[in-house]
Design goal:
alpha+beta, Immunoglobulin-like, C8orf32 fold, 2 domains, globular
């Protein structure tokens, strides 16, 4: 008998405006579009630019991330992305998730999220992770313990770190922003043998609107979302991309020197509708 409560579908309206100045002709690759998946649906969207040029869209089948490429001449360019997105939310208590998959049973596309990466040096923090979290029960309790540790031990302090700060450096500084919290959470999870990946999202009710970082872990055959910053409700996350770390989810990648002139982001909640529970994947 299924006693899980009904799912709830939330509908959000997203608006993003980015302005760049390029020193010379080149290419601009953007990762600003909401992903499409079983639990997140793009109802409508439009991406445009001040040049009137056509975008080239590329999608990553494994995680539904989408990139939009654009040739740009030297000078100023403005990009506007607008979308209406539906997200399925469930009140199913994730504390019931107790299984950490044996390494031999992990799908090939998940195994790669066990290894150290550029900003998540899990091999350097294995001893600390074992001492701090080794006595916690496997599954949600262990990951929640990691998030609680981060929340209490790391200060959310804008300006303390930059785009090149790694998880080990954040641990030394004992401060950072959402990007650093996600990197350190991923690092501890991987050090404990739990696959973990970095995620970026639009976040409803984030006090200073921006692209927000969180992390996902692989438990009981699914990806689950965690955020140790507690800056915004997770049911208001509209997923944009995932990867090994922040290097894989850069908002914009340029082939020429460029300067960000302005960024405006808004996320508005349009509706909330209860729907019967289904066995669709929880999370994204």
């Amino acid at each position: 008998m299924n006693n899980r409560p009904p799912r709830t579908t939330h509908r959000f309206q997203i608006s993003t405006r980015l302005a760049y100045q390029l020193a010379q002709d080149g290419w601009l690759l953007l990762n600003v579009a909401a992903t499409r998946g079983a639990t997140q649906r793009v109802v409508s969207e439009n991406i445009s630019n001040s040049l009137g040029a056509d975008f080239r869209e590329q999608a990553v089948p494994e995680d539904a991330s989408r990139f939009h490429g654009l040739p740009v001449p030297a000078g100023d360019v403005e990009i506007v992305y607008k979308a209406i997105v539906e997200r399925d939310i469930t009140d199913y208590v994730s504390s019931e998730v107790e299984v950490e998959s044996p390494l031999i049973d992990l799908p090939p596309e998940v195994v790669r999220f066990l290894y150290p990466s550029r900003y998540c040096e899990s091999d350097k923090l294995a001893r600390l992770a074992a001492k701090a979290f080794g006595d916690l029960n496997p599954g949600h309790e262990r990951v929640a313990g990691i998030c609680n540790w981060l929340y209490h031990q790391i200060d959310y302090q804008p300006g303390m770190t930059d785009a090149h700060t790694s998880a080990v450096e954040c641990l030394t500084l004992r401060g950072g922003v959402c990007r650093d919290f996600a990197h350190l959470g991923i690092t501890f999870c991987r050090a404990m043998g739990i696959p973990a990946r970095y995620g970026s999202a639009y976040a409803f009710e984030l006090v200073q609107p921006d692209f927000h970082a969180f992390f996902e872990v692989w438990l009981e055959g699914k990806w689950w979302c965690y955020d140790a910053t507690r800056l915004a409700p997770q049911e208001g996350f509209i997923r944009v991309g995932v990867g090994h770390d922040a290097a894989d989810t850069s908002v914009a990648t340029m082939s020429a020197s460029a300067q960000l002139l302005n960024m405006e982001i808004s996320v508005e909640k349009l509706s909330q509708t209860p729907v019967p529970y289904s066995e669709a994947p929880i999370g994204f």
